Amino acid sequence: MELTLTSVQQSALASAVASEPRTRCWKRYQAVLLVAAGLEPRLIARTLRCHVASVYGWVATWRREGMAGLAEGPHPGAARRVDEAGEAVLGTLLESDPQTHGHQATGWTVPLLPTELRHAGYEVSGRTIRRTLHRLGYRWKRPQYVLGRPDPAYAAKKGGGSRWRRACWRRAARSGWLMRRRCGSSRRCARDGASGGNRPRC
Question: What Cα–Cα distance (Å) separates residue 113 from each residue in 50, 57, 83, 104?
């Protein structure tokens, strides 16, 4: 294969080889320079670790389009499985109660969401839902449990119970009987040492 380059073209390719950080583009520029230097395409493919057909294709692209043809094109990637309409559906679900959709749960989880999105026409996996939630700014937090129906007399009951327990302890201390909290048994406490502000010993 013969390829003739002008001094301007050689300088442009040499500058591109020296400054190109991406390996794919660097191989293209280097292959054209090596072909112009007289090397065989098979040897160039072995040196650059590519297929010999790629070397022929890069040279043909150079002859048609020049440097612009060897540049790396955009890679947009695959389309999102959850588009803007799906994101709106997901946001509406997260603002609703799972129990209204027939789930026995008080909060939405990733395993529950694919079923509801499937009803809306989106067949997605849990990993896709996690990426979508992260992109929308949602973060997982542990639910906080609150009393749904507080007892209006809870404070009074709690206070009354505390007074009753204090009265029981005072009566037990006066009679010399104390309950041992650790083992749950009761026995007669030694009265010696109780005077002078010292605590009775059990």
Answer: 45, 47, 15, 13
Residues 74-121 have pLDDT tens digits of: 777 777 788 888 888 888 888 898 888 888 888 888 888 888 888 888
What's the pTM value of the predicted model, to 2 decimals? 0.43
Q: Which residues contact 147 (CB under 8 A, 6 or more apart)?
A: none
Residue extents of the structural domains in the chain: 7-70, 84-98+107-135
Helices (H), the chain: 7-19, 23-36, 41-48, 52-65, 67-70, 84-95, 113-119, 126-135, 154-175
Contact 45, 75 (CB under 8 A): no
Q: Residues, the chain, total?
A: 202
Amino acid at 1: M
